[in-house]
């Protein structure tokens, strides 16, 4: 397939042979479009971020509290501080992605996550050494608190931040017309994998201990994942002599106006659009609530009157609904008559429904509505979060724009557990926090009606 020289994000030849697009495998020589291989490993990249996601950290919570002598509130605050610190560097991380390309960015980020996990497995010993520092030892819990906050900062930056950002941004560079299909399949795999993470990590901890669990994960990332991503990941099709989607379609069809890119936006230009913040704030609210719900899951279950097993098992049907809705959302984005802003509106309505269930509902009677709301909202998140940025703002500055988006998401996820903990401490329950979140979700659903694709305005103007 002919090389498309006009693409703005085509990279020059790499200085070192080990990073050359045709080494050690040549994508253009595959008997089928290499984007399908790329999609598999980019999806694997998102799955590799699990140890740095809240769903992967939560099972370590009680173990860390025990060995470091921290209370639940102290652990929540250290998690918030660490996540805040990680968000400060995600903008630079996005620019790093644009500068070095997706292949290097993903390999380096996965390796960094592996080393962070290795360090986190010794956080108890590191905190003992930190206790000898006069500045941090005037409270018995402070050395462990500081070490854990710094560890969380590195864990969140590498895992939830860079590994996720790089994997999703790479995927967005290889597909255009088929982007909805790819995102649907990728999102289904990620949702299923993430739903199994807490139980899998818990079993691993029981077998080898919390330290051994992090060490096993570190070994897998450093010895297996980094090698796989170096071999198979490529930044974009143009550097490999290929075209997006594998070339021209043999079956012409009417394009969705929301899929037509007329020019590339810079990060400051994107940040000045209403659409960017309408989508970003909706995703941020979802991240805030889901992180808080996951972090305080057992306490919330007790408050709404269900057992630990019952509240944990709601993740399974929720993941199923998320997979189905994610596939549906991703598929309809490729239809010529669909406006993506209406899909964002659906996300807001389903989110308001889910949060309202926890805030006002009676369990277990309302559990089916809980599963439906959280599932559809999660499906919209996975289905839209990769599609919108290359369609709305082009591919040239995709890393920087995604970095700003991820920074906002990470900040929201940082404050989520803390805000919900504050609601419980000062207002006596978590329900009020869910009620407030439901009102915000409804308001953002209304705002979504004005979140038009900025590319449309270029044509209309």
Description:
This protein has 461 residues and is mainly alpha-helical. It is 70% helix and 0% strand. It has helices spanning 35-48, 54-57, 61-68, 72-88, 90-100, 102-120, 123-130, 142-174, 179-232, 267-271, 274-295, 297-303, 308-313, 315-332, 340-360, 367-384, 388-393, 398-427, 431-447, 454-460. Helix 1 (35-48) crosses helix 9, helix 5 runs parallel beside helix 8 (142-174) and helix 9 packs across helix 14 (315-332). Residues 1-14 have low confidence and may be disordered.
H/E series: HHHHHHHHHHHHHHHHHHHH
Instruction: Write down the overall mean pLDDT.
Output: 86
Count of alpha and pi helical runs = 20
Please name the fourth-level CATH homologous superfamily of the largest domain.
MFS general substrate transporter like domains
**Name of the top-level CATH class of the largest domain:** Mainly Alpha
Shape: globular
Q: Give the proportion of residues in helices.
A: over 70%
**Gyration radius, in Å:** 22 Å
Helix- and strand-based class?
mainly alpha
**Count of discrete domains:** 2
Strand content: under 5%
Q: How many beta-strand elements? A: 0
Largest sheet: none
Named at the architecture level, the CATH assignment of the largest domain is Up-down Bundle
Low-confidence stretches: 1-14
Q: How far apart lie the N and C ends?
A: 35 Å
What name does CATH use for the topology of the largest domain?
A: Growth Hormone, Chain: A
């Amino acid at each position: 397939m002919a090389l498309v020289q006009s693409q703005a994000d085509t990279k020059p030849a790499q200085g070192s042979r080990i990073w050359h697009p045709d080494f050690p495998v040549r994508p253009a020589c595959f008997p089928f479009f290499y984007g399908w291989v790329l999609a598999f490993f980019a999806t694997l990249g998102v799955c590799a971020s699990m140890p740095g996601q809240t769903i992967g950290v939560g099972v370590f919570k009680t173990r860390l509290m025990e060995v470091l002598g921290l209370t639940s509130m102290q652990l929540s605050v250290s998690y918030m501080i660490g996540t805040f610190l990680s968000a400060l560097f995600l903008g630079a991380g996005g620019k790093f992605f644009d500068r070095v390309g997706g292949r290097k960015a993903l390999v380096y980020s996965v390796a960094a996550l592996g080393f962070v996990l290795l360090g986190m497995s010794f956080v108890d010993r590191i905190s003992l050494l930190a206790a000898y520092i006069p500045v941090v030892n005037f409270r018995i819990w402070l050395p462990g608190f500081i070490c854990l906050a710094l560890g969380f900062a590195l864990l969140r930056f590498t895992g939830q931040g860079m590994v996720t950002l790089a994997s999703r941004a790479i995927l967005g560079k290889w597909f255009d017309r088929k982007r909805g299909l790819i995102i649907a399949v990728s999102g289904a795999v990620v949702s299923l994998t993430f739903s199994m993470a807490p139980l899998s990590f818990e079993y691993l901890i029981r077998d080898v201990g919390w330290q051994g669990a992090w060490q096993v994960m570190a070994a897998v990332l450093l010895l297996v994942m980094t090698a796989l991503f170096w071999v198979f990941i490529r930044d974009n099709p143009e550097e490999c002599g290929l075209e997006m989607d594998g070339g021209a379609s043999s079956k012409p069809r009417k394009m969705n106006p929301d899929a037509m890119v007329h020019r590339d936006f810079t990060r400051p230009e994107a940040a000045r659009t209403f659409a960017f913040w309408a989508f970003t704030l909706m995703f941020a609210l979802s991240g805030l609530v889901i992180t808080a719900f996951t972090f305080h899951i057992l306490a919330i279950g007790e408050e709404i009157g269900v057992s630990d097993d019952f509240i944990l098992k709601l993740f399974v049907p929720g993941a199923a609904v998320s997979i189905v809705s994610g596939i549906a959302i991703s598929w309809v984005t490729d239809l010529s008559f669909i406006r993506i802003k209406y899909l964002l509106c659906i996300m807001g309505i389903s989110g308001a429904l889910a949060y309202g269930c926890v805030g006002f509902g009676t369990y277990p009677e309302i559990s089916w509505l809980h599963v439906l709301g959280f599932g559809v909202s999660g499906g919209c998140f996975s289905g839209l979060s990769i599609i919108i940025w290359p369609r709305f703002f082009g591919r040239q500055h995709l890393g920087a724009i995604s970095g700003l988006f991820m920074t906002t998401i990470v900040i929201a996820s940082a404050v989520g557990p803390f805000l919900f903990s504050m609601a419980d401490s000062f207002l006596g329950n978590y329900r009020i926090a869910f009620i407030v979140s439901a009102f915000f979700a409804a308001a953002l659903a209304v705002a979504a009606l004005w979140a038009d694709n900025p590319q449309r305005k270029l044509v209309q103007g």
